[in-house]
Structure formats: structure tokens, C-alpha cells
Design goal:
The structure holds two protein chains of two kinds.
Chain A (H helix, E strand, L loop, with lengths): L1 H45 L24 H26 L9 H20 L12 H24 L3 H17 L13 H36 L1
Chain B lengths: L15 H23 L4 H6 L1 H6 L6
Keywords (chain A): Membrane, Transmembrane, Transmembrane helix
Protein name (chain A): Cobalt transporter subunit CbtA
Organism (chain A): Pseudomonas kuykendallii
Chain lengths: 231, 61
């Protein structure tokens, strides 16, 4: 069973990560690079790229290594995608041991669920941002993001698998709760990049992630049931 | 790995308690991977996975 989980996560994560990296390099990364030209222009005026309080360990000092633009940067983005995709796929495969998808298309539903949990719900409060966008304290936003994903996952699970109405209603409340609390917002909303670019990035990010999750859901369900047949 | 072949449901090859353990461990390991690439404050990791984070709409910067 462990082998099946590892195989499912490894293969489907790899496939989905390659797919995501391709999509990104066509649509998402060009927007990030464009936004960085505004950010760098702004940064040279301010002489610093500030990170607000509590972010002392997180400064873009000149000495910090970062991948060079071009192939190296794309490779590291692909590597980052791979780690994240295998992580998501491990979660899916773990859940499949409890509820195995009978058909490959059911993986699409799991993928949609993942998209709702890890993209849609957090994006309602913290939309995808290009570099150079003002935002609240990083830690607070990370806490809210993780809390929202957790509440959405448990809420969706209750709605989908709950045996009675009380559980389902509790699930709906859990879905709504993070948005009633509200995401941490900056004092002033401002962006160095033009508004049109920021808007396009929101669509680009959501669409690529939706396609990524569809691919990951389908691939993981296929690999998982394939491993079952061969077991 | 010993797995009995049952005709209809493949999910019954292990008792529920073991499957629960496997699910929880898988989810935790998965979450650790996502945290490392997407959320850790190590500058090196942040810079390397910068575009991954922005693209996935993880809180960044």
C-alpha cells in the first residue's frame, strides 16, 4: 500500500508538474517578469524592498542567491512545482486509501476539490499577486491561508461525505468561516505594476491552477487504480 | 506486500485503522513538502521557488 501511494504521488506529481511548468512559462511567468520590471524600478527609488515588521529573516539582500533569469530560473520553478505537486498528490493518494476512486473520471472531482481548497478559497481573500503588490504581514497571511485551506477541506469533506444534514450544514459554515473572519489586508492597497497586469495575473494564476488540478486529479486516480489492478 | 485479492472493492485490503494511519501520514508528508517549497522563510528556498509561489497564489513577500 505504501508503494502504491508513493508510485501514485511520484508519477502523477511529476506529470502534473511538467504540465504546470509548461503552462506557466507561456502565460504566468511572463507576467511575473513584467511585474518585476516595475518592482525593480520602484525599488531603486525607495532603495529597499521592504517587508514590514517581523520579516527580518526574509529580506532580499543583494547577497542572497537567486536563480538567474532564463533557463536556470525556469528549472528552479519547475523543481518548486515538482515538490509542491508531489505534496498535493501525496495528500490525494492518502485520501484514496480511504475512498478509492472507482473510475478515473472521479479523479477530476478530487482535483476540483483540491483546486477549491488550495486555490479558490484562499484566493477569495488573498488574490494571486504579482511581485510589487502591497500586502499585510507575511506570517498573518500564511496563517490565514493555511486556516482557510484546512477549513475548506474539512467543510467540503463534510458536505460530500456527511451522512446527515447537521454535518452538511456544519460543512457549509466551515466553508464560510474564514471569509467571515476576513483575510489580513494591507493598510493601503497599492501595486507597482499596472492594474491591468495585476488583473490578468489573477486570471492566469487561477486558470493554470485549475488545469493543473484537473490533470493531477485525473492522473492520480488513474495511477492509483492502475496500481491496484497490478497489486 | 501481501494483499488479498478481493473481487469488488480494492479498498478493503487493509483494516480501516491502518488505512487511516497511512492517509494521515501521507497527508502530513505532503503538507511538509508544500510547506518547504511554498511557505518556508528560508531565503534560498524562497528565491528558488519564487515563481512557483506567486503562480500558486501562496502568500509571498
Amino acid at each position: 500500500m505504501i508503494k502504491r501511494i508513493a508510485q501514485t504521488a511520484g508519477f502523477s506529481g511529476l506529470l502534473a508538474a511538467i504540465f504546470l511548468t509548461l503552462l506557466q512559462s507561456f502565460w504566468v511567468s511572463p507576467l511575473i517578469l513584467k511585474a518585476e520590471t516595475y518592482e525593480n524600478a520602484g525599488a531603486s527609488e525607495q532603495a529597499e524592498h521592504s517587508h514590514e515588521a517581523g520579516a527580518a529573516a526574509h529580506e532580499h539582500g543583494a547577497e542572497a542567491w537567486s536563480p538567474e533569469d532564463g533557463l536556470q530560473r525556469t528549472l528552479f520553478t519547475g523543481l518548486g512545482n515538482l515538490v509542491v505537486a508531489v505534496g498535493f498528490a501525496l495528500m490525494l493518494a492518502g485520501l484514496y486509501t480511504l475512498r478509492a476512486p472507482g473510475k478515473t473520471w472521479q479523479g477530476l472531482l478530487w482535483g476540483l476539490g483540491g483546486f477549491a481548497v488550495f486555490n479558490l478559497a484562499p484566493s477569495l481573500g488573498l488574490p494571486p499577486e504579482v511581485p510589487g503588490t502591497a500586502a499585510a504581514d507575511l506570517l498573518l497571511r500564511q496563517y490565514w491561508w493555511i486556516g482557510t485551506a484546512l477549513a475548506t477541506a474539512v467543510g467540503l469533506g463534510m458536505i460530500a461525505f456527511g451522512r446527515n444534514w447537521a454535518l452538511r450544514i456544519l460543512g457549509v459554515i466551515l466553508l464560510a468561516l474564514p471569509h467571515l473572519i476576513g483575510a489580513p489586508q494591507p493598510d493601503v492597497h497599492q501595486s507597482l505594476a499596472p492594474e491591468a497586469l495585476a488583473h490578468e495575473f489573477v486570471y492566469a494564476s487561477l486558470l493554470t491552477n485549475a488545469l493543473f488540478w484537473a490533470a493531477l486529479g485525473l492522473a492520480s486516480a488513474w495511477f492509483f487504480s492502475r496500481a491496484t489492478r497490478n497489486a | 506486500m501481501t494483499s488479498r485479492t478481493l473481487p469488488s472493492s480494492t479498498a478493503v485490503t487493509l483494516p480501516l485503522s491502518q488505512r487511516l494511519t497511512l492517509a494521515v501520514v501521507s497527508i502530513l508528508v505532503g503538507a511538509a513538502l508544500i510547506y518547504f517549497a511554498g511557505f518556508s522563510h528560508m531565503e534560498l528556498v524562497h528565491n528558488a521557488a519564487h515563481d512557483t509561489r506567486h503562480s500558486a497564489a501562496f502568500p509571498c513577500h
